[in-house]
Design a protein that fits this description.
This protein is α+β, with helices and mostly antiparallel strands. The protein has 7 helices and 13 strands. Strand 9 and strand 10 form a beta hairpin. Helix 3 packs parallel to helix 4. It is elongated and about 80 Å long.
C-alpha cells in the first residue's frame, strides 16, 4: 500500500502541490479553522457553497476544471498535515466537518463523480490522517448516496463517520469540539475575526435549566464605569430570554438591556455589552417553558476601555 501511495504522490505531483497557486474561488467550499477537544485541526467542507451555479460550472464544467478541483482539495489536505505533530504523543490526524446544508446533492453528476473519486483517493493515500468524519445538516438523500458509496469504503473508514440531522448539529459537534471553537452558524461561540474573546480568555460555563423552570446568570458590576461583554447560547433554544441591569441602590431604576424575547430553535448565539454608571449587576434570565431540560453555555469578561 505504501508503494502505491508513493507512486500516486509522484504521478499526482503531490510533493509540490503546496507551492501551486490554485486561486481563492473555492475558499468558501473548504477551509481549516480551530481544533477539537483532542487538539486535532478541523477542516470544514461546505458543500452548500457549490449550490451557486456560477461557482459550480467554474469548478466542474470541464474535465480540466475537475482536475484543478482535486488538486485544490488535496492541497488543503496537505496544508492540514502541516499543522500535525508526528512526534510521540503528538496529534497526527485531522477532524473533518462536512456540512451538507443546501448541497446540490447526487443529482449533479459532475459533483457525484468528483466526490467519489476524491473520497477514494483520500482513503487510499491519506488513510490515517482523518480521525473522524462528521456529516452535519444531513438531508434524506444522503442515506441513499452513502449506500452507493459504501461498497467502495473500508470498514475502518466507515467507522470514523458520524452523522447529524439539522436539529442535532450543535449537540453532535459539542461531543468533539469545545463550544468556543464551534462557529456561530453551528450554534457555537466562535466568530470570524473576533477581537473581543480569545482562547486565552475565561472559559465557558454551563447551566442546566429544568423543564418548566427559570434560571438567572448574575454578573457583578461593583465598580462604576466597568464594561462587560458576554456570549450566551442555549442548545435548541425555545426559551424566553432577557437581560437587565439592576442597580445596588434600591432607589435607582432597573435598566432593560434586552427586553424579554421568545427565542426560536433557529436562533444564533447572543453577544451583548453594557457599561454601568453606578454599582449593580447584570442579570441574564432564561425561562424554559418546554418539557425538556435546556443547556446554557456562556462566558463573560471585562471589556478594556481602550477598545472603545
Amino acid at each position: 500500500m505504501l508503494g502505491k501511495t508513493l507512486q500516486w504522490r509522484k504521478d499526482f505531483k503531490a510533493d509540490s502541490i503546496l507551492d501551486e497557486d490554485l486561486g481563492t474561488d473555492l475558499s468558501p467550499v473548504a477551509y481549516m479553522s480551530g481544533v477539537d477537544r483532542e487538539g486535532h485541526p478541523i477542516c470544514y467542507n461546505i458543500f452548500g457553497a457549490l449550490d451557486n451555479e456560477e461557482l459550480y460550472k467554474k469548478t466542474f464544467g470541464t474535465e480540466e476544471k475537475r482536475e484543478v478541483f482535486l488538486r485544490w482539495r488535496f492541497q488543503l489536505m496537505e496544508k492540514g498535515i502541516q499543522k500535525l505533530d508526528f512526534k510521540a504523543g503528538g496529534v497526527n490526524s485531522l477532524l473533518q466537518i462536512n456540512d451538507l446544508k443546501n448541497s446540490p446533492g447526487p443529482s449533479k453528476k459532475e459533483l457525484r463523480v468528483s466526490t467519489k473519486r476524491a473520497v477514494g483517493l483520500l482513503q487510499d493515500n491519506y488513510p490515517e490522517f482523518v480521525a473522524r468524519n462528521i456529516f452535519i445538516n444531513v438531508p434524506f438523500w444522503f442515506y441513499a448516496f452513502n449506500a452507493l458509496l459504501s461498497p467502495f469504503l473500508t470498514q475502518r473508514t466507515k467507522s470514523k463517520f458520524v452523522v447529524a440531522r439539522p436539529g442535532k448539529v450543535t449537540e453532535t459537534l459539542l461531543r468533539y469540539i469545545p463550544v468556543e471553537e464551534i462557529p456561530i452558524q453551528y450554534g457555537g461561540l466562535k466568530r470570524d475575526n473576533d477581537f473581543e474573546f480569545s482562547i486565552e480568555d475565561a472559559g465557558v460555563s454551563e447551566l442546566i435549566i429544568k423543564a418548566g423552570s427559570k434560571e438567572t446568570i448574575e454578573i457583578s458590576m461593583a465598580e462604576v464605569g466597568t464594561t462587560f461583554i458576554w456570549d450566551l447560547t442555549v442548545l435548541g433554544w425555545e426559551v424566553s430570554y432577557k437581560e437587565e441591569f439592576i442597580p445596588t441602590d434600591e432607589g435607582s431604576y432597573t435598566i432593560i438591556v434586552q427586553k424579554a424575547k421568545k427565542m426560536g430553535s433557529n436562533e444564533g448565539p447572543v453577544r451583548n455589552t453594557f457599561r454601568n454608571n453606578e454599582p449593580g449587576k447584570i442579570v441574564l434570565a432564561i425561562e424554559n417553558n418546554s418539557s425538556k431540560k435546556k443547556v446554557v453555555l456562556y462566558r463573560y469578561k471585562t471589556k478594556k476601555s481602550e477598545s472603545f
